[in-house]
Specification:
By secondary structure, the chain is mostly beta strands. The chain is 1% helix and 47% strand. It contains 1 helix and 40 strands. The strands form 9 sheets. Strands 25, 27, 28, 30, 36, 37, 38 and 40 form an 8-stranded antiparallel β-sheet that branches. It is globular and about 75 Å long. It starts with a strand and ends in an 8-residue tail after the last helix.
Length: 544
Amino acid sequence: MIRNPVLPGFNPDPSICRVGADYYIATSTFEWYPGVQIHHSRDLVNWRLAARPLRRAAQLDMRGNPDSCGVWAPCLSHADGLFWLVYTDMKRNEGAFKDSHNYIVTCETIEGDWSDPVYVNSSGFDPSLFHDDDGRKYFLNMRWNHRGPGTGGNPVHASFDGILLQEWSPEHGLTGPVTNIYDGTDRGLTEAPHLFKRKGWYYLTVAEGGTGYGHAVTMARSRTITGRYETQPDKHLICAADAPDHPIQRTGHGQYVETPGGEVYHTFLMGRPLPGRFCPLGRETGIEKCVWSDDDWLYLEAGGSLPRLDVPAPFDVALAAPQVIAHAFADGVLPPEFQWLRTPFPDRIFRLDDGCLTLIGRESLGSWFEQSLVARRQEHFAYSAETSVVFAPDSYQQGAGLVTYYNRHKFHALALSHEPGVGRALGVLSCPGDWPDAALTLLPDRKVPVPDGPIEMRVDVDHAAQRFSWRSPGGDWQRIGPDLSAAVISDEGGRGEHGSFTGAFVGMFAFDTSGQGHEARFGRFAYAPADAVRARQPAPEPLP
């Protein structure tokens, strides 16, 4: 069986592509660098991270991009012996305007060196590229209307002003007329267009209802590529809006794929909310099996519009068990699950040498430009993470340690710093989402002095709660700080669902707001799902 989500943790907007027996899913990475995640599978059950293709400044520079901007909604396809990747670099999200620049890059192989980008347009976001069977190519995106409803915008969609289609070629770029091919349904907020062709029909998949709990996958079709497109009789192929107790929520934004044997599936983004309706794992990737009806419309195999947790797979194959993942940074290569924020110049913020990861203290945890934070996705509701740091700060303006991070105003951090009258000390910094420009020190009068030498740090997360601990090497773990709300580190935490599109990360950070670039050396990092932790050692004291 396929177990949903197939890509747990922050992996939204899945675009799926099959080449022979190989399946690839591209997902959005927003402000995290390198840009776009591409996972590979041969069975639709087990997936591995194969590439992040946008990895140099010519392709992507997100310094200054606000939270939840950057790379939106990639589209991955294969034609003419090449992989084609279309993506948006969103420069502004909040307010009436969206500055959304759309590009195309290509490569002969997924894991190869992708081309410099070709700019296409900026009229809206969620771009895709369709390769017709006559060799012609068409570019699609939703159009953003900054005037909103009542000033020319579609009254149902507000600023979402339909799906645009225009012919495109590598030689000439966009050519011919721009056609608005679909306005969507009364659910509104129509976006994320993907086209495919079957039996003379052009089928259009879109997302509707916003990326929250009203999200949906909607399908339409036309005999001609320029439409107009008629909507599927049920309107929505996938939607959980009317089933608030269903374990899979926020379903939408996906793409159709066929297996070599003719079975059909559709990807979708999804969320798994905890009680109180918050999603620390962000928007994840799911897959459902579908069937074609006699009316040549696509429906879920199980009927209705609710996707299942367990879905029949094309092959009888076992799902790999969760494992403890530990790194000592000895090989001089950043492990593939780690990313950093915004900058295409990682040598400014970290290096790997002498068997450790050295972070160079730069701007604060609240920076939009250059912060030294290297982290990996949270993929489980309960996990532990540990690291070891060597750091000799001489000012309270210097800090380094372990952080659970959503964005610049939603994080908890255990920081090793220097306090006047105390010396080297540990403290907990928290920004609970209601103040976007600063962190609140939870223990202003109880900084914990620590001895010289390495300090080991640990965070235990159990659904809605988390706590930090520390020790000197060989010593016992000691609690530090209060129990913290992990609900803050979620899409809905703090300022809420609007404008929050990523997911929880856990990782290492260093800052030096004095501008001196003080360095912190991290000797190891381990991430362990709760089940793997219990198998390895006695379970820690339960969180409340």
